[in-house]
Amino acid sequence: MTGLNDIPSGERAHIGFFGVRNAGKSRLVNAVTGQNLSVVSNVPGTTTDPVRKAMEILPLGPVVIIDTPGLDDEGTLGGQRVERARRVLAECDAAVLVLNATEGPSDFDRSLLALFEERKLPYLTAHNKADLLEKRAPLKEGGLYTSALTGEGVAELKERLAALLKAQEAPRHLVADMLSPGDTVLLVVPVDESAPRGRLILPQQQTIRDILDAHGSAVICQDTELKGTLSRLAEKPGLVVTDSQVFEQVARDVPADIPLTSFSILFARYKGELSVLARGAEELARLRDGDRVLISEGCTHHRQCGDIGTVKMPAWIREYCGAEPDFSFTSGGDFPADLTEYALVVHCGGCMLNEREMKARLARAEACGTPVVNYGMAIAQMHGILQRSLEPLL
Predict the structure, then answer these.
(1) Which helix (H) or strand (E) holds 365?
(2) pLDDT tens, position by position, for the chain (394 residues)?
(3) DSSP character for 343?
(4) What is the dihedral of CA 34, 38, 42, 43, to 10 degrees?
(5) Helix 375-382 crosses helix 274-281 at what angle (to 10 degrees)?
(6) How far apart are CA 115 and CA 123, in angstroms?
(7) What is the rounded distance in angstroms from the CA atom of residue 51 to the CA atom of residue 53?
(8) How many other CB atoms are there within 10 angstroms of residue 176's CB atom?
(9) Per-domain residue ranges for the chain?
């Protein structure tokens, strides 16, 4: 049986703990998680990099807890740590500002609060080390006294975080809202040298589960068996979903009266990015020699000889635009803050990134005036089937 701790990081609520050095962030994180997640000491700056832990916390459920370095760190290395801590904000669904209750908010704390509000990030303020206070002043809404040493306020902090995150929840579906009970969805899943041995990749797993939740039936085959599978079905499938790498062939083999889309395009709709990425797809034909193109992936994996990001995608783009753009590549959490030098960003489906982080990346590109498209929509555009692949979702 799949447990809550098997839920992928991109589907978990991300909670960041922020504050100045020695406010007790790491001790409070350890108290909240019930684990020695972070190394603690009385020496300021013990936490040097963001520390992440995917876990289940009642009553929160599956979450990712992130302990960050102090935002008042100093020196060259300190500045780099601060920048990493700020990047964490992009992926957080909620934040906890940990204040030293014996000293009150600092200028750094106030700047953090302003940043939370600017980014419309839900947050709580934990006035930590409350056990050292002789008198306690009333706190503003969203504030509470905590003590990592005695455990005071820890249970209340978790309950308040659960309520804060619950208020943001909205029902989302990959395909379930497009189906009726009994519908059949045919999933085309190629197995090549880049396919993980013994398992399906995350978008395929999540799509299957969403079909089952809608009381539909999932039929799965490789692209090489697609024609035979279609011929053996007693009724036409209500939808065909394909891996983007074989989009062109699948579009030829699936009759025009059967709705067709890709896993990547489903994820674009799921995370609210469909219209932005569709506009980005139009820019592919406008690329010229020397234009800089960033190809970015949200996860890190071992590169294969036929890797889609570094091998197939550049080749498809060159052939489609008839030019020689200059390609750059990033993966995981490495995504440039300044995108003005790029004519286009081509991003993966973002299945390993949560919705807030993916939208933050799109917002960063928009602020720089740089169009963005994802793999699936780029491939569909380059093979002349984007409009067909969008029709089932409109």
Answers:
(1) helix 355-367
(2) 344 445 555 678 899 999 888 888 889 999 998 877 554 445 444 444 678 888 887 777 888 899 987 776 665 655 666 666 677 888 899 999 999 999 888 888 888 888 888 888 999 999 999 999 989 999 988 899 999 999 999 999 999 999 898 877 767 788 999 999 999 999 999 986 655 676 788 889 999 999 999 999 999 999 999 999 999 999 999 999 999 889 999 999 999 999 999 998 998 888 878 889 999 999 999 999 999 999 998 876 555 556 888 899 999 999 999 999 999 999 887 888 899 999 999 998 887 788 888 888 998 899 999 999 999 899 999 999 999 999 998 8
(3) S
(4) -170
(5) 40
(6) 11
(7) 7
(8) 17
(9) 4-166, 176-266, 272-386
Sign of the CA dihedral with 82 first, then 363, 121, and 91 last: negative
Rounded to 5°, the CA angle 80-81-82 comes to 90
Query: Same CATH topology for 4-166 and 272-386?
Result: yes
The answer to whether 215 touches 181, Cβ cutoff 8 Å, is: yes
* Measured CA angle at 81 (ends 334, 353), to 5 deg: 35
CA-nearest of 264, 277, 272, 273 to 203 is: 264
Considering the domain 272-386 in this protein, what is its CATH number?
A: 3.40.50.11410
Residues 6+ apart with CB under 8 A from 363: none
Paired tokens of 294: 């960033």
Q: Which residues of 117-127 are buried (b: 16+ CB within 10 A; e: fewer)?
A: eeeebbbbbbb
Identify whether the C-beta of residue 292 lies closer than 8 Å to the C-beta of residue 342: yes
The CATH superfamily assigned to 4-166 is P-loop containing nucleotide triphosphate hydrolases (3.40.50.300)
d(CA 293, CA 324): 10
Q: How far apart are CA 345 and CA 293, in angstroms?
A: 6
392's tokens: 């089932």
Would you say 258 and 205 are in contact if contact means Cβ atoms under 8 Å apart? no
Give the 3-state secondary structure of residue 296: strand
**DSSP-derived 3-state class of residue 242:** strand
**How many Cβ atoms sit within 10 Å of the Cβ of residue 169?**
9
What is each CA distance from 164 to 69, 96, 129, 142, 169, in whole angstroms? 24, 11, 23, 10, 9
* Fold annotation for 176-266: Rossmann fold (3.40.50)
Report how far residue 104's alpha carbon sits from residue 108's, in angstroms, rounded to the nearest whole number. 11
